[in-house]
Amino acid sequence: MMTKVEMITDLIRNRRSIFADYYIDKPVPKPVIEEVLTNAIWAPNYKMTQPWRFIVLQGEQLTQFGVYLAEYYKTQYERLLHYPARAGCVVVIIMRRSTKVEITEWEELAAVACAVQNMALTCTAYDIGGYWDSCAACIEYAARFELAPNERCLGFFYMGYYNMAEYTSSKRRTGIEKKVTWLT
Ligand SMILES: Cc1cc2nc3c(=O)[nH]c(=O)nc-3n(C[C@H](O)[C@H](O)[C@H](O)COP(=O)(O)O)c2cc1C
After folding, report:
1. Most buried among 6, 20, 147, 153, by the most CB within 10 A?
2. Ligand 1: distance of its center to the CA of 17 in Å?
3. Coil, strand, or helix at residue 7?
4. What is the rounded distance in angstroms from the CA atom of residue 177 to the CA atom of residue 183?
5. What is the pLDDT of residues 103-117, one digit of tens each?
6. Thinking of the domain 15-179, which architecture would CATH place it in?
7. pLDDT in tens, 59-117
């Protein structure tokens, strides 16, 4: 039986950005997506502005986005055409700025980033691959969802089951000895 610290450490350190090329043909059930999004909205947020909104793209929506992506980045046309449809779903990440509370943009942006990390960790717990894609094509594509003037797309969060046995990542981190200053 793992301790709570072992469990959270395991999720944080085993979370990886898993791209749609690695996804397998297995739908992500709606209750799972709902749980991922519910954990997202439990993120910390200054002044409780809850500055997020999400749009879930599935099915035909992903096919349509593939056409846009392929046209946008023509060099990888064939790959990108079918790329989004490999996902169980793609969540459009929207920052919705508060119009009532005085708060700087970065504080609301940081809250949305916390929400996305909650999504990523929840996906890890479900053995679902995911990653945040902030490509220009994603951001521009989101304009078709008629965002309000106080809303801004921060990218897409891809989700999909993947073959865990085959996936490896060589990405490492620079240790805290180089990143942390201790003052006493
Ligand atoms: C705000 C944000 C935007 C990102 N946008 C992209 C992106 O557009 N394309 C991409 O391939 N990865 C994107 N990533 C994922 C990073 O490439 C990834 O986190 C990094 O390479 C570290 O790998 P890991 O997540 O597997 O540890 C983004 C991550 C964050 C936090």
Report:
1. 20
2. 6
3. helix
4. 13
5. 999 999 999 999 999
6. 3-Layer(aba) Sandwich (3.40)
7. 999 999 999 999 999 999 999 999 999 999 999 999 999 999 999 999 999 999 999 99
